[in-house]
Amino acid sequence: MEFIAIMIAITAILIGLFCGIVNNFLNKLYIYNTIKGFPGPKAYPIIGNAHLFIGNIGDVTNQILKISENYQSIFRLWLGMQLFIVINNSEYMKNVLKSPNITEKSEEYGILKLAVGNGLLTAPVSVWNTHRKFLNKIFLEKYLKSYTDVLVHHSIALIKKLETLIGEELDIRHYVFRCTLDIIYDNMFNIRLNSLINENCELPESIDCLMDTAMQRILKLWLRPDIIFYNTAVGKKVRTCMSHLDNITSNVFLGQTLFYFFYY
């Protein structure tokens, strides 16, 4: 009886594995048939197009821009066995964004949680719907008007900063990102972060580090497993960035809590 029970269990496991393999094969076959007319760079078995994204984040960005120039409007990329459809056309994008089926996130968004948490960008539909309804009220015109002074103040600070850099080659995103952080902290938390004029503020660099690393993990399959990633130089750098980010955030909100405690 024991032998029969073992054989039944083994048979059930084998049938389950077989059904899983067949189901996966049929899903991939359906995907191949659906996208066979889509242009894109040559993909290889198992790795897909992952070989195109070797290098630092600058190399990866340049490679993506190069591919976008070669395949305009819409094209496909394979990262391992995972298919990505890249849209580079505003009309196509508008049709996609109108679809009610795009709010559920793919598993790649889980990597971004390291940098942005479980907010609108990464949250599952159930959380996303709740947060979106709350945020819709914040962006009503009557509330936006109350933010005007803060927006103007930090916009002027950005202009003054850029005026000091006339004639120099610069990364405009660096300064716009810092200005955006200043506006968010001032509006949402009533805190003057002043990261735009305080180059020693580590918050923007820590967020940048986490976002760049998240993009590398999405595009570089060998960095996906945690056990490998956190033992690489990039993974160790992320731990340092996370520590800085936690310290900055804790200090900011501790100061805000003490402010309300003593003055309200």
UniProtKB/TrEMBL annotation:
<keyword id="KW-1133">Transmembrane helix</keyword>
<keyword id="KW-0503">Monooxygenase</keyword>
<comment type="function">
    <text>May be involved in the metabolism of insect hormones and in the breakdown of synthetic insecticides.</text>
</comment>
<keyword id="KW-0560">Oxidoreductase</keyword>
<keyword id="KW-0492">Microsome</keyword>
<dbReference type="InterPro" id="IPR050196">
    <property type="entry name" value="Cytochrome_P450_Monoox"/>
</dbReference>
<feature type="transmembrane region" description="Helical">
    <location>
        <begin position="6"/>
        <end position="26"/>
    </location>
</feature>
<dbReference type="Pfam" id="PF00067">
    <property type="entry name" value="p450"/>
</dbReference>
<keyword id="KW-0472">Membrane</keyword>
<dbReference type="GO" id="GO:0046872">
    <property type="term" value="F:metal ion binding"/>
</dbReference>
<keyword id="KW-0479">Metal-binding</keyword>
<keyword id="KW-0256">Endoplasmic reticulum</keyword>
<keyword id="KW-0812">Transmembrane</keyword>
<keyword id="KW-0408">Iron</keyword>
<dbReference type="InterPro" id="IPR036396">
    <property type="entry name" value="Cyt_P450_sf"/>
</dbReference>
<dbReference type="GO" id="GO:0004497">
    <property type="term" value="F:monooxygenase activity"/>
</dbReference>
<dbReference type="GO" id="GO:0005789">
    <property type="term" value="C:endoplasmic reticulum membrane"/>
</dbReference>
<dbReference type="InterPro" id="IPR001128">
    <property type="entry name" value="Cyt_P450"/>
</dbReference>
<comment type="similarity">
    <text>Belongs to the cytochrome P450 family.</text>
</comment>
<keyword id="KW-0349">Heme</keyword>
<protein>
    <submittedName>
        <fullName>Cytochrome P450 4C1-like isoform X1</fullName>
    </submittedName>
</protein>
